[in-house]
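User: two proteins, same treatment. go.

Assistant:
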Amino acid sequence: MRGHILRKVLISALLTCFYIPLAAVRADTVVESVGWPDVSFDQAVPTLESVLGYAPGERITSVDQAHTYLRALASALPERTRMVEYARSWEGRPLVYFLVGTEETMARVDEIKAGMQALADPAELTDGRVESLINDLPAVVWLAYGVHGNEISSTDAGLQTAYHMLAAKGAPFDTIRENTLVAIDPSQNPDGRERFLNHFRETYGIAPSTSAIAAERREPWPAGRTNHYLFDLNRDWLPLTQPEVIGRVATFQEFFPLVHVDIHEMGTDSSYFFPPPAQPFNPHYVDEQEQMLDAYGRNNAKWFDRFGFEYFTQAVYDAYYPGYGDSWPAFHGSVGMTFEMASARGLAGERRNGEIVTYADGVQRHFVTSVGTIETASTNREAFLRNFAEYRRSADAGEHGGPREYLIPLVGDASAVHKLAANLVRHGIEIRRTIEAGSACDSAMPEGSYLVSSRQPAGRMVRTFLEQESPMAEDFLAEQERRRALGLRAELYDILGWSLPSLYNVAVQPCDRVSIDAEVFDGSGVPAYAEPASSQVGWLVPWGTQAAGRFLAAAQRAGLKVQGADEVMTISGRRYERGTLVVRIADNPQRDAGELHMMMSQLAEMSGAEVVATDTSYSEEGVSFGSSSVMSLPAPRIALAWDDPTTSYSAGNTRFVLERQYGYPVEPVRVEHFPADELDRFDVVILPDGGDYASALGERGVDRLKEWVGRGGVLVTMSGGMRFAAQDNVGLLPTDLERLADGKPEGEHEGDLVDGTQLKDQDAYQSAILPEAPRPDSIPGVLLRTRTTTDTWLSAGVSDGVAFMVEGRDVYRPLTLDEGWNALYFEAPENIEAGGHLWAENRAQWAFKPAVVQASYGDGIVIGFVADPTFRAALDGANVVLLNAVLRGPGHTARLR
C-alpha cells in the first residue's frame, strides 16, 4: 500500500511540470498522521501548521522554526509555559528548555526547584519534611531531543509533546499534566542540526530520495552528528568541555528531574529501542533504578503494542559508561534513558527489505514514548520521588561502601589539580579545600589540597569518577571471554576506562580517616597567581604543567622570543627540570625591561603559570642559557589535516585542545589540498586519527608531504595518522605493526598436507576451528599507563604515569636507538591499566611497547602517537607531550632555528 501511494506522489510530481516547491513536498502522504487517538484539542492552542505552515512530520523543522513555534505556544498560554535559554553554542545559537505544566504548577516553579534541591540532600531534612516534599512535589520529567544533530525526528516529536500537553483533552493527558512538570529541550545540538539541514536543503529534489546512497541521505564530512568543534555531545557529560553540556549539567542540578530521556536515531534497518538497557550496568546503579527502568519500558511497550510499532529492549545500548545523557543522571539518583528510532536520514528511507521509513514515522514513535514516559512518571510520582530521596540518603550514609574520603594533594601539576577539583564541583560533588598543611594515609597534604568525601548525596558518582575501575559483573565478563574465544565481538558499546585522576594525571589517594581543617570549595577562587618580580636578565617558567603550556602558547602568539632548555639547569640555587622556558630581556629588544615585566605579569595571571625572575644567567649546575641545548621556540604555523579521510572526532578534538584550552590557532587544511605549494607556509602538520591517508593523498601528495618533512617540517601523527606514516610504502616512521603474540610457532605447509593434531577435548576443538588471528584482539577503550624516556626533548616535563585511551589493535614494535626515540612507552603488565578492564593477552603484548615515538626524516621530525592524545579533549595528562610536539618541535629542526 505504501509503495502504491509513493508511486502516486511521484506521478503527481511529473504532472506538475517538474516543479514542486520544497515547502510543498509532503512526507506524510506515505505515513499515518502524527498524533494521539481519541483526544480533542483546545482550539486556543496554536498548531504547528498554523504557525509554520505544515503538519507534523511533513517537513524537517529547523532550530529557529522550533523556537518560533515554542514562542507561539508561550504567547498563547503564558501562564502554563516558560521558555528559558540555558546555554549558547560555539556558533552563537541559543539552547533552550520549554517548561509545560498546569497553571498551579507553573506558578510554583521556583518552589519546585527549591523542593527538589532540598530533597536531593535528605540528610539535612527531618523525616516529616521529606514526606511533606514527596507529597507536594510533581514529577519533573526532562525530555532532551537531538543531541546528535543528524538524528532529526526527535525535535518535531518534542514540539508535538509540548502541543499535546497544552491542548489535548482526554486520556492520558488530563491525568498526567496534573502530576508532572515537563521540560522539553527541543535541540541539544543546534549547530549540528543546522549543518545537516543545510546539506539536506542543498541536495533535495522534487520528491524524497529513499536510496541509501542518495545525496540527500549521505552527508559529507563531518556530517551533522557533532557540534561546531566536532564533539559527540552525548559523551561529554563526564569531561564537561563543551558549552552545550556544561549548561545542561548546571540546569539539571536546578531541577533534579526524576527522569531524563535522551532521544536519538539509529540505522534505517533497525526498529525502535527503549530501556531496560543491555548489560553491563555500572555497579553503582541501585536495584530501585533498574526497577524504574523496567516500569518505563513496560509502559512504553504497552503503547507500542497498541499502535502496532516494533521495538526491542535489553540489547546493544548498555548502562556502563557514566558520561552519557542517559547514564550521568543515574549517579544523582534519577533515571536516565535512551530512546533510539530507525532513521529516515531525510524525509524517507528504504530498508533492505523494501519497507519505507519516513521522517514522520520517527516523529510519531518518539512522540509516543515521550508521552508514555510522562505517564509512567505521573502514575508513579510518589514512589519515584521516594526512590530519589532514598538514593541520595543511602549515598550520604555510605551504604555503597568504599573508602570514606579521597585525598587530592596539591602536588605535581597544581593547575591540573585545581581543574579536576573545579570539574567535580560542576558535576554537583561537594569538595573541601584544606586551610592548613597536614597529612593523612601516608600522603602529605599541602595547604590548598582537596578532600572529597564519598559520604555525600552524590557519593556513588564520587566513586564512579575517582576510582580506577568500575567492575563489571563476573558473569558478564565470563560471557565476553566465551565470545572472544569463539572469535566474536565483545558486547561493549563504549569505552571501559574513564577514571578522572588518570585522565588528568593527578594523584588521588583513598583514605578512611582525615583530620585536616578544610572549607567547602565552590569551584571558584583558585589561588591567585604569584606576581613575578622585575628582572635585569629575564624570567624562567618551569615546564610540565597545563599552566606553563598556556604561558608558552600566549607568549609565542604575542611575539616574544622564548627559549626552552632541553636539559636540567640550576639557577640561584634552584634546580629547573628539562623543558624550562627562558624569556631573556636581551632577546626581546623591541620592549624595555619594564614593559617585559608587565607582560610577564599579564601572562602569569592569564595562564596561572609560575614565572620566576632571575638577575643572572649563570648556571651553577647543568646547562646555561647560551648552551646549544637551550633552543629558540618561535611561534609555529600549524596545519591540521581536515576532511576525509580524517576521523572528525579526532580532528575536532585536536583543534579544540589547541585553540580553546591553550589559545593557539591552527589552520584546518583539507587533505586533498596537501600537494599544493601552500604547504610550505606551515612549520607543523598534524595528521589526526583517520582512515586511508595514502589513497586520499595519492602518490603525488605523499611525495609532497615527505619532501616537506625532509626540508625541516614537523609531522605529528595520531593513531590512524601514525599507521599511515609507518606504512612500508610511505616510510616516514621506521616502525611496524605487530602480529598477535600468542606463543604459537607459525605453521609450515608441505604440499597439500599439514601437521597432524590430536584434539583431546572441547577446548582443543574450539581452538582448532578458530581462524588465524594475525592481529591482537581489539581493545574497547581502556586507559593505559606509560613511562617516560628522559633522553629526548619530546618527553620534557612529562612525568611517569601519563595515561592514553587505547582503542583498537595497533601495537607497534619499539624503535631501535639508531631509528629514533620511544619517548613514552607503556608500563609493565602488572601496572599498565590506569582505568578499565584489559584482556589478559592485551596486557602482556602492550607492555613496554611504544606510546609516543620520534624519528628524524631528512632535516625534519616525525612524531607518532599510538593513541589519540586529544581523545574527547579529556586526556589533560597527555597535553604536555602534545605541546612539546607542536609548539617546541619546530625549534629542533633546521627550519626555524
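Protein 2:
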Amino acid sequence: MAAASGSRSGTKKKNTASSRTKSGSGRRAQGKKAQNTKGIRQEERAIANEILLIAVFALCILLFLCNFGVIGPVGNAVSSVMFGIFGMVAYVVPVLVFVGLAFRISNRGNFFASLKIAAGILLFLLIGVALELIGGQAASMESYSVTAFYTAGADTKMGGGVLSGSLAWILEHFLGMVGAVLLVIVLSIICLVVVTEKSFVGGVKTGGRRVYESAREDAMARRERARQRRQETEKRRTEEAKEREEEEARRDARKILRMDRKVSGVMPDLTLSQDPKAAGAQDGPEPAGIRRGGPADAPARAQKRAGADPDMPVDPEKIRIHSAARKQEDDPGVTAKQKVTEEIPAVDPLEKSYRDADVFRDMKRMEPLHITLEPVGGQEEPEEDFRFYPTEGMEEEEEGWERQPDEAEPAHPYPQEAEKEPVPEPEDTAPGQEETPLPYDTGRADRPVQEGSLPGKAEKTVAAASRNASAKTEEGDAPRPKTPPRPYQFPPLSLLKRAENKNGLDAARELKNTAAKLQQTLATFGVKVTITDISQGPAVTRYELQPEQGVKVSKIVGLSDDIKLNLAATDIRIEAPIPGKAAIGIEVPNKENTVVGLRELLESKTFREFPSKLAFAVGKDIAGKVVVSDIAKMPHMLIAGSTGSGKSVCINTLIMSILYKAKPDEVKLILVDPKVVELSVYNGIPHLLIPVVTDPKQASGALHWGVAEMENRYQKFADWNVRDLKGYNKKVEEQRKKGDPDAPERLPQIVIIVDELADLMMVAPGEVEESICRLAQLARAAGIHLIIATQRPSVDVITGLIKANMPSRAAFAVSSGVDSRTILDMNGAEKLLGKGDMLFYPQGYPKPARVQGAFVSDAEVSDVVDFLKNQAIGNVYDDRILEKVKSMEGSAPSSAGGGTEERDPYFEQAGRFIIDKDKASIGMLQRMFKIGFNRAARIMDQLADAGVVGEEEGTKPRKILMSEEQFEQYIEECL
C-alpha cells in the first residue's frame, strides 16, 4: 500500500511539474505572439505615417505654388481662400502645416510636443494679429464684419484674414491699441520660450553681461593706452630735459687755457692728460671744451679772433689748463690736482660704455674753446676771455686731421700717467679756479701740437719753440722710452639696438584659454590633469601639468598629435617629466615670437656680475630668465643645426659677449671660417691672434698650432709647478710684484671657433680630427677652448671621437631625429622652431634646456668692430704665430682615416656588406672576402675611423652607425 501511495504521489508531482512547464511555455508563446503583433502594428503604423507625410508634402507644395499663381484658375481660387482666412501669413501656411505634422508624427504621445505645437499655432495667429494691427482695417471698423476681413485678405493679400483679423478687432476694441500691442508682445515671448525652451531672462542677462564685459575691456584698453601715452610723454620729457642739461653742462664746462705773461712759443710735443689717481674713477666721456689731440692751430686762431698779437711770445712751460669753479655733479670726472672732498666710486665697464657712446658718435665735433691770455712784460692788463668756435673750413681740416694715423704717441709708460712736469702755480691764480688736466680719452692717442697745422705767424712761433725744445733735448734730456699699446676701451652698449616687441593686452587671457583647452583635450581622452604653472618664454610657452594618480606618463606623450590638432599648433614638444619637478611640461609655440636682443642680455645684472671673462650670453630660457654660461667650464662646445636655424648668429653672440667682457690681453680668439663671409668682418679687432682663417688647409695649420701651444703651456706649468692657467698667471703676478725683471708675461685664454666643420673634414679629415680630439682632451687646463659649428650633423662629420670629447652641445632646428640623436644623443631638436630656438645642453645639465638665442644684426656687429678698430691700439696680430701656422700647414701626419690612398681595396665592398647584414665582425669579413685576420682587422679599423661602425665593445659585434644612403654619400664626398 505504501509503495502504491508513493508511486501515486510521485506521479502527481510529475504531472504538476509538467503542467507548470506547459503553462510557462504557453505564457512565453503568448508573449512572443503579442510582441510580434505589436511589431507588425508598429510597422504598419510607420508605413501609414510615411504615406501620410508624402501625401501632405505633395499637398503643401501644391498649396505653396497656388499662392504664386502658377497652378491655374483652381490654384487662384484656393489661394484666395487661404489669404481670406489667414491673411498675409498664408504664404507660409503650407510649410508650417508640413513641419507641424512631421513633428507630431515623430513625437506621438509626447505631451510636451503637443504643447509646443499649440504654442506654435498661437504664435502663428499672433503674427497675423500684429500684421492686422499694423496694416489692416481692424482699427477703422466700427462694427465687426467677417465678410470685410475675408474680402480684404483675398483681394489685397495683406492683414490677418478672418482668424487673426477677428482677434485683432476684439483686442483693439476692448483693450485699445496700446493694450493690444502689449498683450501680443507678451504672448509672443511666452510662445517663443515654450517652442525654443530657451530662457528669455537668461538671454537678457547674458547679453547684458557681454555688454558689460565689452565696456569694461574697452575701458581697460583706453586706460592702458592712456598710461602708455603718459609714459611715452614722461620719457620724452625726461630725455629732452637730460639733453638740455647735457648741453648746458657742455656749454659751461669749457676748459680755460691760461697762459703766463712771459710767453715765447708753443711746445710741439705738448700733451694733455689726467691724474692717474683720478683715472680709476674717471669713466665718463670727456666733458671739456678742449679735446686732447685736437687741431693744434686752435690757440693761434683764437688769438687772431680776439685781436691779440700773433707774434706775442709764448712760454710753453707756463701753459696751464684751468676749470672754472663748477658744481661737482656737472663734471665729476675732471679731478686732476683738484681738492675734491667727495669720493667718486669706480664704475663698471658696461656702465661706462653708456656714457662713452656720445663721445664715439660726436668724435668729429669740436667744442667751443675758452682761452685766457696774459700779456708779456709784466704790465697789468685786463684778461680777455673769449670763445673759439670752429668754422666750416676748420671742421673739414679737423676731419682730415683725425684721419691721420697715430704716429706720434706720448713717451710715457702708461698714457694715463703722461702728465706734464709740475709747474708752480702763479700767485694771482683766482681762488675759484682749479688746475685740471683733461680726462684721458681712450678713443684716440695723445697727439702733440703739430707745427704744420698753425697758420701764418703762429706757425713761425711754433717752429721757433720746436727748435728751442730740440736744443734742450740735445743738451741733456734723456730719450723717452717706447710707448706701449693703449688700454682697451670696451665698446658702448649704445652701439647695439634694443629689441622692439609688442606687448598684447590679452596675453594672459589667451594663455588661460589655451590652458583650459589643453586640460579639456586631455580629459576627452580620459587623462585628468591639473595645470600647475604657465611659463611664457620668447618663442614658446610651457604648460606644466600634474596628472592624477595612476596616469602613465607615456599616455600623455602618446597624445602629442591629438594635442597639436586641438590647439591648432604648428608643433609641440613634451618634456616628461620636467627635471626636478613632479610635473610634465608641454611646450606650445607662441602666436607672436619675441625677439631677444643682445643688448638686453648684456645690460642684465646676471651678465654684468658674471665673474668669468669667458661669459657667453646665450639667450632666455622658457621662463624668460637670462641664460649666461661660462665657456671655461664647458670647456668645449659643439653647435649644430640646419641652414637658417641660427648657428652663425649664435657664434656672433658668443664673440660679442667676449668683446664686451674681456680685454685683448685676457682672451684671444682664433676664428676659422671656411664659408669666408660669416666671420671675416672681425678682421682687425685686437682680440685676434691671427687674421680670420678662410683656407681649409690653413685651418688645419691653425689647429696644429693650437696643439703645439697647448703642449708649450703644459711645459711652462710643469716648470712653475702649477696645474692650470689660473695658477700660472697667479705665480707670474707674484713675481712681478716682487720686482723680478725676468718674470714672464701673463698667458691669455684662447678660444678657437670653427664655423663649419664639414668643409674642413672634406679637405683634411685626418689632420683636423686629430687636432680637435687632442685639444678637446687636454686643452682645458691650458686655457684653450674649442667652439665647433656645423650644419651637417652626420656621423662622418661629427665622428664618435669628436663627439665623445665635446661635452657641451647646442642643437638648433634639424630636419630629422637622426641628426638630433647625433648632436644630443636624444630626440627633440627636430621639433624646434628655428630662428634661434635651441636646446642648450652644457656640461652639468641633466637634460637639455630650451633657450631662445639672442639676436645681433650684421649692422650692430659692424658698428662694434669699427669702434674697436678706431682705437688704433697697434698691430693686433702676432707675426710669429702667423709664421708658425704657415709652417705647420699640412705638416702633420694624417691619421688612419685621413688619406684615401691608404684605403684597402675591399673598403667599399666591406662597408656595403656590413651595412646590408647589419652586423660587423672581423671573422665575417675573413669568411666573406677570404682574407687573413690582420687585413680584416685593418679594414674594420678603417670603417670605424670613417664612422661606419662603432668602437670595439669586447666580444660583442660593433654597432652599425651609417645607413646605406649615408655610406654612399660618404664615398662620393670623401673618396
